[in-house]
């Protein structure tokens, strides 16, 4: 069960630019995100689920990355901004599982939106996993209520499929 943040906890939160000294903590957050996404689909996560963080840091479209740190200066969340034409894409948005439900994600989303406005971007999008209901509800509450794109997949293996039936879009039935 998550608890709401106290006013002191929210005011003690600092959002700042990512620094190389944040690498270990951010890589761990990335690993936590990757493992949670794998768990949503019942597939095993990689032995080194944080390894993709290294590749992420080298992306040419990475416009900025920020971390949320608490009163003890521990990194408890991170958010990145990727350039996407005249718009931007939020990737990733991660809050440490033990700290969710306390306004950290919302503060990171507000910060990245402000940064996107400062850069003159006209739109900001984010692509949560289709099964991540908590994330979708949080993002909707934070103002992400327009469908900008839909990513469709074809299951090439079909054996041991992890897809569930249940989403209608444009009068068509989809698995998720």
Overview of the molecule:
The protein has 176 residues and is α+β, with helices and mostly antiparallel strands. Helices cover 30% and strands 24% of the residues. It is built from 5 helices and 7 strands. It has helices spanning 7-11, 23-40, 52-57, 104-118, 133-141, and strands at 14-17, 62-69, 75-84, 87-95, 124-126, 165-169, 172-175. The strands form 2 sheets. The chain has a 5-stranded mixed sheet. The radius of gyration is 17 Å and the shape is globular. It starts with 6 loop residues before the first helix and ends with a strand. The mean pLDDT is 89.
Radius of gyration: 17 Å
Number of strands: 7
Task: Provide the β-strand percentage band.
Answer: 15-25%
pLDDT averaged over residues = 89
Tell me the strand order in the biggest sheet. 1-2-3-4-5
């Amino acid at each position: 069960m998550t608890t709401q943040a106290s006013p002191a906890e929210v005011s003690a939160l600092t959002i700042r630019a990512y620094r190389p000294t944040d690498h270990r903590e951010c890589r761990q957050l990335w690993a936590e995100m990757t493992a949670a996404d794998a768990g949503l689909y019942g597939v095993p996560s990689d032995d080194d689920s944080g390894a993709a963080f290294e590749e992420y840091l080298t992306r040419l479209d990475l416009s900025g990355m920020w971390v949320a740190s608490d009163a003890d200066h521990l990194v408890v969340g991170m958010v990145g901004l990727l350039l996407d034409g005249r718009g931007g894409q939020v990737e990733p948005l991660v809050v440490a599982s033990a700290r969710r439900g306390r306004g950290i994600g919302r503060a990171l989303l507000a910060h990245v939106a402000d940064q996107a406005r400062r850069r003159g971007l006209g739109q900001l999008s984010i692509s949560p996993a289709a099964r991540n209901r908590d994330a979708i509800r949080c993002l909707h509450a934070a103002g992400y209520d327009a469908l900008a794109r839909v990513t469709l997949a074809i299951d090439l293996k079909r054996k041991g499929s992890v897809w569930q039936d249940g989403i209608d879009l444009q009068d068509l039935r989809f698995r998720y």
